[in-house]
């Protein structure tokens, strides 16, 4: 299924900076009617509000808090495109002393956060024949040793995204799983990556993939190398109906 951004009402978690901000700006450039900016700090979207006026609406939201996301969904019954961009990532190897704490924290935001968003917005997206976009990563299909717990959390979120595709697509909801490589953001710098892709590459890729009705998006140069290697498995296993 495909969906155009033009004249749609969208919601972006973590919209105040990085990839989330770029997605917001791309959606508005492509004719979105309104974008809800779902952020923990409601003072952090002032620049977007000054630039876009009443085309953006800031709402407080924390994907690690179930009540917060349920309230967010109640406030936005007109939303058709939900982008779950908010996530965390920090270096931690599999045998580091704080590995359990690191994995627990990153699962709570990156995987359980997706479930909080999906369960809270499923009925709205079904009613509005909308789309759910999940920001995953190339780390969801390969464990990077110095980012082991982040990779594990993104592998979990990718698996859940596949589950959402199976359950929501038959109800008219488009699901898009986005798998960037290193991106030029604060998170990317903290993870030790240099020369990451520009955030606009990911944002524009989302617009194009939604219109094409794709399930996977590997938007940047590094990600496309993963796509080339992964495409056969994806077609024959991930996207295949194995119940036949």
UniProtKB/TrEMBL annotation:
One of its GO terms (molecular function) is oxidoreductase activity. The keyword Nucleotide-binding does not apply. PROSITE patterns: ADH_SHORT (PS00061). Keywords: NADP, Oxidoreductase. It holds the Pfam family adh_short. Gene3D superfamilies: NAD(P)-binding Rossmann-like Domain. Belongs to the short-chain dehydrogenases/reductases (SDR) family. This is NAD(P)-dependent dehydrogenase (Short-subunit alcohol dehydrogenase family). It comes from Leeuwenhoekiella aequorea.
């Amino acid at each position: 299924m495909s969906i155009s951004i033009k004249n749609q009402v969208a919601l972006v978690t973590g919209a105040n900076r990085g990839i989330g901000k770029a997605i917001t700006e791309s959606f508005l450039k492509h004719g979105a009617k309104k974008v809800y900016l779902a952020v923990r700090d409601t003072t952090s979207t002032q620049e977007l509000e000054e630039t876009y006026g009443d085309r953006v609406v800031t709402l407080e939201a924390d994907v690690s808090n179930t009540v917060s996301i349920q309230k967010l969904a109640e406030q936005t019954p007109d939303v058709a495109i939900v982008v779950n961009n908010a996530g965390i990532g920090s270096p931690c190897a599999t045998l580091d002393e704080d590995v359990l704490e690191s994995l627990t924290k990153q699962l709570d935001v990156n995987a359980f956060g997706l479930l909080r968003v999906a369960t809270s917005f499923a009925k709205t997206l079904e009613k509005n024949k909308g789309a759910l976009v999940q920001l995953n990563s190339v780390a969801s299909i390969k464990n990077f040793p110095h980012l082991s717990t982040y990779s594990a959390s993104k592998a979990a979120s990718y698996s859940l995204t596949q589950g959402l595709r199976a359950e929501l697509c038959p109800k008219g909801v488009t699901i898009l799983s986005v798998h960037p490589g290193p991106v030029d953001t604060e998170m990317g710098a903290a993870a030790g990556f240099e020369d990451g892709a520009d955030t606009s590459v990911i944002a524009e890729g989302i617009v194009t993939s939604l219109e094409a009705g794709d399930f996977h998006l590997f938007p940047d140069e590094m990600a496309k190398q993963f796509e080339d290697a992964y495409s056969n498995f994806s077609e024959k296993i991930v996207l295949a109906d194995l119940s036949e």
